[in-house]
Write a structure and sequence with these properties.
Four copies of one chain form a homotetramer. By secondary structure, chain A is an alpha+beta fold. Helices cover about 20% and strands about 30% of the residues of chain A. Chain A contains three helices and five strands; from the N terminus they run E-H-H-E-E-E-E-H. Chain A has a five-stranded antiparallel sheet with strand order 1-3-4-5-2. Chains in contact: A-B, A-C, A-D, B-C, B-D, C-D.
Amino acid sequence: MATEAETGDGRAPDHIEPLRVRFSDTDAGGIVHHSNFFRWLEEARLGLLRGIGVSYWTIADSGIHFPVTACSAEFRRSLRSEDQIEIALWLVGRSRARLEFRYEVRLDGSVVATAKTTHALVNDSGRPIRLERDSNLWNRLGELEGD
Amino acid sequence: MATEAETGDGRAPDHIEPLRVRFSDTDAGGIVHHSNFFRWLEEARLGLLRGIGVSYWTIADSGIHFPVTACSAEFRRSLRSEDQIEIALWLVGRSRARLEFRYEVRLDGSVVATAKTTHALVNDSGRPIRLERDSNLWNRLGELEGD
Amino acid sequence: MATEAETGDGRAPDHIEPLRVRFSDTDAGGIVHHSNFFRWLEEARLGLLRGIGVSYWTIADSGIHFPVTACSAEFRRSLRSEDQIEIALWLVGRSRARLEFRYEVRLDGSVVATAKTTHALVNDSGRPIRLERDSNLWNRLGELEGD
Amino acid sequence: MATEAETGDGRAPDHIEPLRVRFSDTDAGGIVHHSNFFRWLEEARLGLLRGIGVSYWTIADSGIHFPVTACSAEFRRSLRSEDQIEIALWLVGRSRARLEFRYEVRLDGSVVATAKTTHALVNDSGRPIRLERDSNLWNRLGELEGD
């Protein structure tokens, strides 16, 4: 079971993204394909960015990208089509070259999966970059951590 | 049943792409999700281009794109994970502004689905363009039709 | 442009499903992969069923399935990640052995794609069946048509 | 960088699955969506099973399933549509209740990603089960480990 430290030191999630499981998220096992959890985590990250007023497209158009360099998940329960879930996420690591998030996927208040993603910061050519210390994005993300 | 006219006037396919159905192509109904047939058709188009010596990336890098503007399919039989299928395709329409393909998805020699896609030609900004009459791509595609 | 006849004889949609485009719905062309439109149409059908009080799972558990036997779409505009769209759908054909739906995918009030799907009715083994004339599902669907 | 211990103690892979990246595996970032690596790993597991003569369907039809209970991946390089890759995998943990695999995704001989999946054994109802000690599957998997 994920400890508080693993999911953000007990602080409230930085964002909660509601999401309905699509039928096409399932596989012939009758349940959601595990790969699709990672697609939902991404939607939660985009929702977080919208929530702090910095849209994905603004960031991308300014030449900043956050590819996933590592990810992991543990699945406690399976999910089915039409399940109405919530993705809680926490920014748990922030440097000028790297971001780290933790997640809980919840159904009816109970945690069905926990996950973690690590992101590099790269430019349009895929080369590592560092966030400007006074950029809007850096400051907004900093406010999350300061919660 | 598709007539010869529907699938290329009886001439041999311009390309046959072998493909194994992925488990993640299936859904909770236990069979392949119908949307994935369109993903396979695309692989067959890429295979056709490779076969005539003009790779997708060369074309895309030269600023030419072929978005799907219309598509349709009829499904006769369902498919399962690991089925080893073939996609036969024919270029059935070619103008400087538009391409049209027809397809048969085959399992063990019998046709499980037929399909059709129509493509516009656009530049990097998504604006309609016309293929140059003497371009390599135009000429190579012309050779297919001349079969 | 789709005429009224094509999209339900001018009558109001039987259901409108709101949906946010996922980043994972896009492809390297920078826009939504055309196959994913068919996944959204399915969500709209599930939403319609929820709306008339007959959930997909109730129907599936009673041994009734609606596989797609034919589908088609025309794309007028491309869509991007995070676009907040609506899928309007109409039940345009209903017999005891077959259902037919038409759709409009809308962004900011304008139609970006139109589509159509045809469905057979089959049992758990995939064999054709006929809906009972007095079944709840048959009656509920009938109310839609009677609009 | 993955050590030998991490990828199977230096022994040759138990299976190598060749695979071509699909265009629909990519996203608007221009590269493969990270979630799709997990779909490829699954194809490699199915390939391994085919290779030792126990097909997925035979196992599933006998009421044995291997849902992923945990998974992780590290990405070193991005991949593009049509890249011809190889998935090397090793069975690194086997008990009657649990299987564990490690993977290398390779392009042109270099490792672009490493990954790990853990699987529970469950019956058709999703309840934990234990593999019979003398079952064909148990013995075949044992031969891999004995390499």
